[in-house]
């Protein structure tokens, strides 16, 4: 197996991987440069097949060299390259006129392809073909330079891949215009340049895909963080009223049994005697004390909290949460000279209940608990209470 066959086979494999990679990534990122890249791969592959005869294992030729068809496919591949780069360069990079000039490679390349076909009977068109592709090469080099100067990461990748092709194009087309003949070994030079092109381009596309995915992940994380901020109380880091409403709408009503509206006793005295910083620490302690199993805790504002309770023993859990407040505040604010207590209004919740109706009932019970001396739970529902749980008629 000679070097030519190995290089030819390597090109077909690399071009195939490039095309399949671009086609596979396109549904995920929806960027048009991937489609232009697939078109480039197809036309350049057709060019290489037209340049290098294919033989069976027994040496019998399947196809021969077709120079005009190869040059037409080369022109079509060059036509796709301008729009590919124009779309591949990051959208935030300001190319201005350079980006528009890259799109001119499309009609110029199409004209060069047509000139290759006409050149079989009118040799003048062969020179037009070379002159047009030389112009495309200059436009590509100019656009690449402008993109790199503007800070494009994608363009820096393509400089590595396209530098050999740009150099070959400038030398080969200039040589053909001057001598009316082909540059020696140009098909092999072009084949080697395309191998480098597709290896680097595939790497760049995958690198760009990874960057896009990271940007999307960051955007999703930022959106989730922003959404979390809208439903979270910034001081206690539990749900706020909006978070409570959202949770109630999505809750499993079949297992949601009760609601407790809890208010810290004599909280104003704490703020007046020890300052708002101490008062804030007390509120954080209350929020932590209310976090027991099978509950959802939210802060309505000030020193008022709501606890949604799941399970059949919801009354006992509500009273347990209220009693935990004293211990939790003592742990969070050890310098407070007296214990902090709370009053609670309890109500059961049925599957058809609304949060507003339940909170109105709990608020009535909370008012009764405060009127009865505070530091206790009262309920509007009938149940057998533990000690210190009364019932409001």
TrEMBL record:
EC number: 2.7.7.65
Organism: Qipengyuania xiapuensis
The name this protein goes by in its record: diguanylate cyclase
Transmembrane segments: 6-26, 33-54, 66-89, 101-119, 131-148, 160-179, 185-212
Keywords for this protein: Membrane, Transmembrane, Transmembrane helix
Domain GGDEF: 255-382
Superkingdom, natural source: Bacteria
Pfam families recorded: 7TMR-DISM_7TM (PF07695), GGDEF (PF00990)
Lineage of the organism: Bacteria, Pseudomonadati, Pseudomonadota, Alphaproteobacteria, Sphingomonadales
Record SMART domains: GGDEF
Record field: catalytic activity: 2 GTP = 3',3'-c-di-GMP + 2 diphosphate
């Amino acid at each position: 197996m000679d070097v030519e066959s190995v290089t030819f086979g390597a090109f077909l494999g690399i071009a195939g991987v490039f095309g399949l990679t671009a086609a596979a990534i396109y549904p995920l990122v929806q960027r048009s440069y991937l489609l232009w890249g697939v078109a480039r791969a197809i036309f350049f592959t057709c060019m290489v097949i037209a340049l290098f005869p294919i033989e069976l294992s027994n040496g019998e030729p399947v196809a021969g060299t077709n120079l005009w068809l190869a040059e037409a496919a080369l022109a079509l591949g060059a036509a796709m390259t301008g729009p590919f780069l124009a779309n591949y360069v990051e959208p935030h990079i300001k190319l201005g006129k350079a980006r528009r000039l890259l799109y001119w490679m499309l009609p110029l390349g199409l004209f060069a392809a047509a000139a290759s076909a006409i050149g079989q009977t009118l040799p003048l068109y062969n020179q037009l073909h070379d002159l047009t592709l030389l112009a495309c090469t200059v436009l590509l080099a100019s656009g690449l330079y402008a993109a790199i100067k503007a800070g494009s990461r994608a363009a820096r990748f393509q400089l590595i891949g396209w530098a050999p092709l740009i150099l070959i194009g400038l030398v080969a087309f200039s040589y053909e215009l001057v001598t009316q003949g082909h540059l020696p070994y140009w098909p092999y030079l072009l084949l080697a340049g395309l191998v480098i092109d597709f290896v680097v381009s595939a790497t760049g596309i995958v690198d760009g895909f990874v960057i896009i995915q990271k940007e999307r992940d960051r955007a999703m994380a930022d959106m989730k963080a922003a959404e979390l901020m809208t439903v979270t109380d910034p001081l206690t880091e539990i749900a706020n009223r909006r978070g409570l409403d959202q949770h109630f709408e999505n809750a499993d009503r079949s297992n949601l049994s009760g609601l407790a509206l809890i208010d810290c006793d004599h909280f104003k005295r704490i703020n007046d005697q020890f300052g708002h910083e101490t008062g804030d620490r007390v509120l954080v302690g209350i929020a932590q004390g209310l976090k027991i199993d099978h509950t959802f805790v939210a802060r309505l504002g000030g020193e008022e909290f709501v606890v949604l309770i799941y399970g059949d023993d919801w009354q006992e859990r509500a009273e347990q949460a209220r009693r935990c407040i004293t211990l939790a505040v003592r742990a969070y604010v050890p310098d407070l000279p007296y214990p902090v207590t709370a009053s609670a209004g309890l109500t059961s919740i049925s599957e058809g209940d609304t949060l507003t109706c339940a909170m109105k009932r709990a608020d009535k019970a909370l008012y009764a608990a405060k009127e009865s001396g505070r530091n206790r739970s009262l309920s509007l529902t009938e149940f057998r209470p533990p000690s210190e749980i009364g019932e409001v008629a």
